[in-house]
Amino acid sequence: xxxxxxxxxxxxxxxxxxxxxxxxxxxxxxxxxxxxxxxxxxxxxxxxxxxxxxxxxxxxxxxxxxxxxxxxxxxxxxxxxxxxxxxxxxxxxxxxxxxxxxxxxxxxxxxxxxxxxxxxxxxxxxxxxxxxxxxxxxxxxxxxxxxxxxxxxxxxxxxxxxxxxxxxxxxxxxxxxxxxxxxxxxxxxxxxxxxxxxxxxxxxxxxxxxxxxxxxxxxxxxxxxxxxxxxxxxxxxxxxxxxxxxxxxxxxxxxxxxxxxxxxxxxxxxxxxxxxxxxxxxxxxxxxxxxxxxxxxxxxxxxxxxxxxxxxxxxxxxxxxxxxxxxxxxxxxxxxxxxxxxxxxxxxxxxxxxxxxxxxxxxxxxxxxxxxxxxxxxxxxxxxxxxxxxxxxxxxxxxxxxxxxxxxxxxxxxxxxxxxxxxxxxxxxxxxxxxxxxxxxxxxxxxxxxxxxxxxxxxxxxxxxxxxxxxxxxxxxxxxxxxxxxxxxxxxxxxxxxxxxxxxxxxxxxxxxxxxxxxxxxxxxxx
Length: 527
What we know:
Elements: H1 13-20, E1 28-32, E2 35-38, H2 39-55, E3 63-67, H3 73-84, E4 87-90, H4 97-107, E5 111-115, H5 119-127, E6 135-139, E7 149-151, H6 152-157, E8 173-179, E9 187-192, H7 193-205, E10 215-218, H8 225-238, E11 241-243, H9 251-258, E12 268-271, H10 273-281, E13 295-298, H11 305-315, E14 319-324, E15 331-334, E16 347-348, E17 353-357, E18 369-375, E19 382-383, H12 387-393, E20 394-395, E21 398-407, E22 413-418, E23 423-425, E24 428-430, H13 432-439, E25 445-454, E26 460-468, H14 476-487, E27 498-501, H15 515-525
Parallel strand pairs: 1-11, 3-4, 3-5, 4-8, 5-6, 6-7, 10-11, 10-12, 12-13, 13-14, 26-27
Antiparallel strand pairs: 1-2, 8-9, 9-19, 14-15, 15-16, 17-18, 18-21, 20-21, 21-22, 23-24, 25-26
Helix pairs in contact: 2-3, 4-5, 7-8, 10-11
């Protein structure tokens, strides 16, 4: 397949998208719980959003905070900002008011676009922030609004669409996403108009092969880099349709949409390993004949081979596992349809170069664990107002991911954990993910997380936290059984010396296991 050509130097992603589908205005772009939005509706409403922002005195390059549940107003808001040259700052709807207050001040947002259900948390954040917000526009308010607040739909209806897009450059700041670091405050990751284009071309088109007949549904929300690609960039560039869901992606909520609750069935689903595990364990798991899935994607953490194999055996549908990051915007290392190697993250996405480097900064040999560095066209420009962190992550043409990987002899890559999650036991690296994936193969285990703890001699050993499937009882006998199970499959130094059974594991909103929370828990218990 020929490589994608670069966008022109003057490039506005929203304008390019609307022009790309101008002849298909009647095609449905979005379906949410309240109704549908055609490509023509999307373009017109986004251009009205652009005009409304300008009329409200929001200038080019100024920021607008976008904290909104997934519904049809979300893509209208995001693309409307881009069309006007205004910079949307998309943030997690599950943030605490304290984190939200930090982002309001840090981004210097001039206006907030939100959902009615999120107003209480936002108002608390505004009260505690040194902010510059002049107005709050509310999608589906559901109640009377206070001074400084307005119904978003009425704002759109009060203006004519903006006639022409802002004359933006492909490489100028277009939007921010906040990275979810394990320590410290989140970092404002600044992306360009061209970055959206590159991910759509290199991954959405060239790897996933999305097309206008697809119906896409993402469990990851639009404010995540993964969800933004899944539910906006990729399907819209391809001319596909998208199902949106405001509620949490529980198995039952996902199954309702898989089986046609909104009038259509998705053909492509985007999820995370934790979600796939929960769905496969659910007694309500649909039959293969009840769904229309042709392809599934997984990211957020490496997909255990057992999960992928079981899912494909049940639905006859491959799960394409890949790794991306907020800093690279989407996936850069991936399996691909027809070439799935469960237990690995596949091969570099064409257009991206991968290097694994040792502690000395030099490339490591195949089979050795190394730090993952990426070079590719969708890298962010910087972390806003954070030169130290920017320099540590964005190193010339290379982006340091913070992940550790092994390159296999066949050219595929296997995840070895986060740099700050890796264990060194008996002088050898131990991948938490490898031990977790092995535990997950046991019929009693739903999911597991592994951290390092110091023994009486101060040496690091592995401890596993295990969540059991329904019908299995925790106890010393099962603990011994699980230890033996791992010892029989992995090198002796890798098995967990301790196992603790939990009702659930600490996770981010995307479903990533927060091993650092388990380390904090252990530290607190030892004092």
